[in-house]
Every structure is written in C-alpha cells, then in structure tokens.
Description:
Elements: H1 3-22, H2 28-52, H3 64-81, H4 84-108, H5 132-145, H6 151-156, H7 158-175, H8 181-195
Helix pairs in contact: 1-2, 1-4, 1-7, 2-4, 3-4
Amino acid sequence: MLPWGHLALGYLVYTLGTRLWNRRAPGGAPTLVLAFGTQFPDLFDKPLNWWFNIFDGRAIGHSVITTVVICVLLFVAARKYGHRDLVGAFSIGVFTHLLGDSWNVLLSGSYGRASFLLWPLLSPPTYPKDSLLDHLREWLGFFQTVPGSSPRLLVETQFGLQLVLFALLIGVWAFDGFPGPRTLWNLITSQRSVTD
C-alpha cells in the first residue's frame, strides 16, 4: 500500500472502533499518533533499504513480532505514565499498516511473499530494488492513464482502490470534525512560546 492508503485504512478502522467503543469521534492527539503509526513501518524499513541497502523495504518494521514487542513496551509505559489512548491509536495504525501490506498475498495463498510478518523467524522476501524515485515514476504513470480509464478499471487496481479509500477518509474525517490539525497547531505554537 501507498502512504495515503495506509492512512485511510488506519483512520477508517480507528474512527469506527472509537465510535463503537467510546461513542464519540476520535480526538486530535490520538489521531496524530494514529497517522504516525500508519506510516511507522515504512518510516523504519524504507530508509534502511534506500540508504543502507538493508533488506528490501519490509522486514524489521513490518514484523508482527517487532510490532508486538514495541506495542507491549509502549502499553507498559502508558500504564505508568498515562496516555493509553495514544498507545492504542499507534498500535491500530501499525497493525493496519501490516494488514494493508499483506492482505492480498495472504488471501491469494502466497504466504512466502508475506514472510516479512514473521521476521526474524523467517527471512523477508526479496523484492525488486526500488527507490522513492521509482515509486514517483510509477504514480506518475498511473495518473497519465487515468483520463482514458473507466471508473471501474481504476477501482479494480490497487492504486485506484487506495485513492477511493483516501476519498472516503476525507469524507469521514470531515464528518468527525477534522481531528488533528488544531492539536498539531497548538503543539507547534505552544512550543514556540516556550522557546521564545
């Protein structure tokens, strides 16, 4: 999945859970932490691949084992210092990221292509070497084919499906009152006033 697909999947799962569990829309701080969590595996693994040629973009940060350890440590700290809601949001973000990267290969029965989920017990699969520039070229190529494509064809592609998910995210986020930006602004401006 691409970054906006991970963000959309994570937020949609989180807001549904928050509304069912707490009977309210998500708060600003948990939404920001959730957004970070939806990107965390890639923020960890992609630089290792692109800059240091370690693994192929999915290993340490995409491992269920690593994720469980990190989330358990965060929950232990949250019990001591509070903010379990933030750890819950982060955990949902990370686990929906793993789900987004593995659901199609798991459903197709290509379990070896999802071996990154059990790193270090299993070796991660080898993917074709790619870079951020390769991803940008792929996205640009997709957008060049959009004008002549039918809406059905767009939705049937992974890329198009993620764009639909992102559009749904924007609508649900608006319905929830756009949680997050005001909290971020308050954090930025309050830190400025402390350091000035």
